[in-house]
Automatic annotation (TrEMBL), chains A, B:
<keyword id="KW-0805">Transcription regulation</keyword>
<dbReference type="Pfam" id="PF13377">
    <property type="entry name" value="Peripla_BP_3"/>
</dbReference>
<keyword id="KW-0804">Transcription</keyword>
<dbReference type="GO" id="GO:0000976">
    <property type="term" value="F:transcription cis-regulatory region binding"/>
</dbReference>
<dbReference type="Pfam" id="PF00356">
    <property type="entry name" value="LacI"/>
</dbReference>
<dbReference type="InterPro" id="IPR000843">
    <property type="entry name" value="HTH_LacI"/>
</dbReference>
<feature type="domain" description="HTH lacI-type">
    <location>
        <begin position="4"/>
        <end position="58"/>
    </location>
</feature>
<keyword id="KW-0238">DNA-binding</keyword>
<protein>
    <submittedName>
        <fullName>LacI family transcriptional regulator</fullName>
    </submittedName>
</protein>
<dbReference type="InterPro" id="IPR010982">
    <property type="entry name" value="Lambda_DNA-bd_dom_sf"/>
</dbReference>
<dbReference type="InterPro" id="IPR046335">
    <property type="entry name" value="LacI/GalR-like_sensor"/>
</dbReference>
<dbReference type="GO" id="GO:0003700">
    <property type="term" value="F:DNA-binding transcription factor activity"/>
</dbReference>
<dbReference type="InterPro" id="IPR028082">
    <property type="entry name" value="Peripla_BP_I"/>
</dbReference>
Amino acid sequence: MKKLTIKDIAKEFNVSISTVSKALNDSYEISESTKEKIQKYAKEKNYKPNFNALSLKNRSTKTIGVILPTMLNYFFAQVFKGIEKTALKEGYKVITCISNQSYDKEQEIIEMLSNGSIDGFLLSTAKETELNNKYDHFKDSIDNGTPIVMFDRVAQSIICDKVITDDFEGAANTVEFLYKKGHKKIAFISTISDLQIGKQRLQGYKQGLEKVGLSFDENLVLNIIEKDYKKYKNKVRPFIKSNDIDAVITTGESVAVSTMKALKKSGKKIPKDVAVIAFSNGILARHSSPKMTTISQHGEIMGETAAQILINKLEKKHTEITTKIIKTDLVIRDSTR
Amino acid sequence: MKKLTIKDIAKEFNVSISTVSKALNDSYEISESTKEKIQKYAKEKNYKPNFNALSLKNRSTKTIGVILPTMLNYFFAQVFKGIEKTALKEGYKVITCISNQSYDKEQEIIEMLSNGSIDGFLLSTAKETELNNKYDHFKDSIDNGTPIVMFDRVAQSIICDKVITDDFEGAANTVEFLYKKGHKKIAFISTISDLQIGKQRLQGYKQGLEKVGLSFDENLVLNIIEKDYKKYKNKVRPFIKSNDIDAVITTGESVAVSTMKALKKSGKKIPKDVAVIAFSNGILARHSSPKMTTISQHGEIMGETAAQILINKLEKKHTEITTKIIKTDLVIRDSTR
DNA sequence: GTGAAAGCGCTAACAG
DNA sequence: CTGTTAGCGCTTTCAC
């Protein structure tokens, strides 16, 4: 029942605990024969050095704290997958907490884990945190020697490693793609106009228009503040009716689905009359009809990258501060020609 | 930089470390004045007792190990949400690992965490584990004093606390519901016929038929082994063509979407000609057209329940072994009349 | 080649 | 009311 300790093994062979410790760590100080028998015994009995004792001694837990705004989102679930995979590969465990987009929760989590539970944080900021521009909790953590790597939703004002999606380029390239297909009246529908990434996407959209020589028309931009996806249609329908558009870029899948429904309802064919492209994590896009062309985000790679950066930092493999940009890919399905 | 310890505080006030320890724990042995100044100082300096030292001393980590087959699945993400919420509420942290449906991975994870990292496991078995009926790693863990609570995909042969969905009743009630709406030719499409929960759902379907007096026709059951959802339609279309059905129950959302597409393609109206109901986690169902009626699974409640059972067990609040069944709910949307 | 002892940060029994 | 000490499980320096 009780777990086997170095002490028990020492007793078993009538040697000191330091001999056992050294034998298990294959020290040159210990004779081959002693090492062999001790190692064999330890293996047989499935001995494992106690995690907390090691952490205490080494002042390092080989554990990463992950803070996500939510897990009920395919993108973040993918990021998590990448983090977990990379962490495990590198011998790290992952303590995962959900901020639920709340600043208070986020800061409680940081407090809770700042007691030697973890070696560093991997996080995407809560919406509330971003809206209120309250980043002191991050700063405190870094100042206290617990490094942070931020991903996707990052805090501009905090100096730390970051991994972000290429939202700007993604949007710009999409406009260009649509233009080349002959689209001239390209709308932009955003449900995250208040977030930094939303602003980036809008900027990219504008940049794309400029590049191909289309003029920006603010009537072709719809910002939906409403957070309940069921109500998207109340905004989308009139928007579509009152504008003569031939393409739509949306910031998410859910609103793209609403948009496609609204388009169909108003007698438009997709993609014949109107093309639809969404920033997307993939799950709805692949099941919609028609299947959606998406600006695909590579959450898993983002997670892997962020985890690797943090681990390298923890193991002092590099110390400079970087911002890594993960490219988006246009995945062409059936909602574009 | 370096974290404040009890020792530092002791030095600050020229008292012993035990005085500090007791003061911080509000011991009756310490004078009010001493307690006050020490507590005040600790608070100011944001002192936090070292997690690893505490765990080592108490032989308890207040940490739960969670093993999920995948996180890229709305249901499991919901379960995770429930676990995380309950754990945090009870002062527990959560180390989360993904088995990716692999037995080897699952058992590595258990090995890795069985060194005093965690107090207990919360897990849903990997598919491979279930198919091969290899459950020794679970048994070992329990025998070694690390309790396990299983949820959703549980191992019949392992004696431990379990939380499961009411798959049997869910399917049976659905048949009854359809029958009352006038459906007589009710098909059953499964993509998990090899899993225990799949068998339960099929049994429930049969039970439902029996109850309402319809005879079981094995031609109305389609088992899809193919795991790529893109290929579902290859099986679903001929199945639909060769059978004259007026309702379909599926084991998942994804295949329900394929089924609805196939039905529409063959000229059937949903729900007028054929009703569709899926066991579901909700995300696709809410965005399909028509919106899908579902046998809804309450992942979050399952997670909360499982976590609470484990924590109660760890804190010795109860010791008997239970299996808790979470009811399903029929959520009626537009794919049924 | 092996062992004694200190120390990681904390608690608690015991002494004063 | 405060302090000394042992001990949680392990590593590591220093003796022998």
